[in-house]
Specification:
Strand content: 5-15%
Bound molecules: 2'-deoxyguanosine-5'-triphosphate, calcium ion, zinc ion
Number of helices: 25
Radius of gyration: 28 Å
Mean pLDDT: 92
Largest sheet: 7 strands, parallel
Length: 577
Amino acid sequence: MERLQGMTNIEVAAILYEVADLLEIKGVGFKPQAYRRAAQAIETLPEDIADVTREERLDEIPGVGKGIAGKVREIVETGNLAYLKSLRDELPEGVQELTRIEGIGPKKAITLSRELGIRSIDDLEAKALAGRIRDLPGFGEKTEQNILAGIRMSRTAKERHLLGYILPVAREIEKRLSSLASVRRVSLAGSIRRRKETIGDVDILAASTRPEEVMEVFATLPGVSRVLARGTTKTSVVLATGVQVDLRVVEDEHFGAALQYFTGSKEHNIALRKLAIARNWRLNEYGLVDLASGRVVAGEDEAGVYLALDLPWIEPELREDRGEIEAARAGNLPDLVEYGSIKGDLHVHTHWSEGAHSIEEMTAAAQALGYEYIAICDHAKTLHIARGLSPERLADQVREIERINRAADGGVTLLSGTECNIGMDGRVDLPDSILADLDVVIASVHSGFKQPEREMTQRVITAMHNDHVDIIGHPTGRILLSREPYQIDLAVVFDAAAALGVLLEINAFPGRLDLSDVNCLSAREANVRFSLGSDAHNRENLRYMEFGVATARRGWLSANNIANTRSLEGLRRFLRS
Ligand code: DGT
Ligand code: CA
Ligand code: CA
Ligand code: ZN
């Protein structure tokens, strides 16, 4: 039984597709199409291929003849296919890899391998840059350039992308698809639905009675630069920005199961599937089925899948197999902070330092978001930060903030603040006399990132011992996809923050998300309290708060762990006086 659970229809189909590709590279006629037809039939089969195999009904699948049926059986029973291995072994090393580059078909790949001994894409790139490809028969200067462009594209498509930049694009596509008459339901799936900090590719799921129409609209969307694969159940495209988007179209009755499956994470799904197996049920992208009776237990709605397994619906942000299934079973899931429950932004820059907009402009934008308050936290003056405020300028700003607060009737309350810099010795770059006049003091590390762990930890803890410091800004200093966190003993920092009542920031800027989700999870265990800040440098950036909330949710945080879910009154109590 275990073994039969292993291979899904899609995985079996993937092996057959690869056989087709390899046969094509070898120049075999007819057979590639036969394998592809069979792969497609299995991919779109409403039943589980493992069941069909066990019940000796493979010959009922259109396109699956006797020969291919034997191969399918082997895949289902062993998880592998010897024929595929022998095909792979027959080809010169690297040829299959080369065909993944756009513009390189099987013939060109074999020529490149035979004539120039190219074994990898890196090697291909080097030879193309050296101008060695243009002279091969059937190639030319233009082909060489196209190959280089193809290599660049294949690399960008593999990169990860920041959630904050991709989510709006994904929502646009979702909206466009949901406007189609034949589309019953659409949802984001995969890591983007789980709001992971970086996204490998965007997954979208739709239920439609006319998949061809949906795929046509999708493949010809304005932002699409090329179509990687096109079928009636799955189409993959690459946007001009280099982001890959996968759209899967299913029948409405399978939508819930498909959404559950394609939301992942893979690890969460594996854990969930174990619960199904324990009941002699099978869970896959088509539904939850009782193996004894063949009865479909759930599949139309995602919550129904969880409910049938005696679980409450689990928020996508929690689905990382970090204990959420156990917590769900025990009725201990956290009451996650809601996206709409942030009452104000505690980290806002203005044109007084490096921001683009005035205090009034930021206030108006905050008003439009429905906030009760924002904290103006411009940088203080150190060597490292451009246009930081001197103590005198900051005093001017505090008076300006008071003036604006007095002039406004109702609306957003401005809190005066700073994002001061934590020096190498842990002292901050503003005198206590100034800090004492501010509502909110963030202290952050902006320099000296290379300190050894012990010193960095002590440095931040020294800053926390300053009675005026309310918040440690972006506590690990990491920049996603470009800079590692500095060396710091977070366990020690978390304990100190909890003991001293200093808040740790979840910086919502898309490239930061610092603290990260996993760090939030451990900080929460240490009873740390948090503050969310967008680190907005212009008024549009205020919207980044959403990604901070996503990070908090992925870190299992509730509203009561977070200072700025409080109204102004409550916030003042939360901050140390
Ligand atoms: P990404 O794209 O790297 O940011 O991460 P995901 O989680 O979006 O991964 P992706 O796009 O490869 O697949 C989307 C979801 O489909 C994944 O979260 C779970 C499901 N899935 C994909 N492949 C498998 C698999 O081999 N086994 C299981 N159980 N689930 C899978
Ligand atoms: Ca994905
Ligand atoms: Ca995907
Ligand atoms: Zn900062």
